[in-house]
Amino acid sequence: MPTTVIPLPQPVLLPVSGSDAQFPVRRVYCVGRNYADHAIEMGHDPSREPPFFFQKNPQNLVTDGRFPYPPLSANVHFEVELVMALKAGGSDIALDDALDCVWGYGVGIDFTRRDLQDGLKKAGRSWEAAKAFEASAPVSALRPADEIGHPQAGAIWLDVNGQRKQSGDLAQMIWKLPEIVVELSKLFTLAAGDIIMTGTPAGVGPIVRGDHIRCGVEGVADLDVAII
User: Fold this and answer.
1) CB atoms within 10 A of CB 1
2) Residues facing residue 163 across a β-bridge
3) pTM for this prediction
4) Which of 151, 152, 204, 227 is the most exposed place for a label (fewest CB within 10 A)?
């Protein structure tokens, strides 16, 4: 182990359902507007838009079930998403090879500072401050694809204080799971440890301190998050 001038950062490790082993995180990619109804509710035409991607930081992933409401925002939205975890990667991955890169799946929330995002959009600036902030991506324990397969359909949902806010199906994705891997690998060299958040269905909305979120993906995982 080399000598370092400051302590080494702690690795980001995600729990694995039914195992003491953990999944080490390298990067976190997110797919924007990957469900038609959500694209429409955000004012876009899904039939004309190619996929686009942004990143969160690995340290934005949290597994303690708590979301501290961020400073400098008064309009933070929830976005439930299926999460993919990669065991391999590369560049320009072929469609037939894409799912061979996937280790497993979970469910997560892409919390978004919508007020900051709207302002950044108007200014023509990057969204980082609206997306890649502390604790902005609560995630469940991961489940291996060897156990659950590669989900192509199934309910994806989110409740706030017991009321259903988001309800969709994985089959409604504009870009399917293997296509997401293919398109990402055209832009980046993917690798083992990469996490991909695959987009959210319609119904996103605001939360406030004291709210409780429960969300899930059928056959994959559920997740509970307290807004504090």
Assistant:
1) 4
2) 160
3) 0.94
4) 152
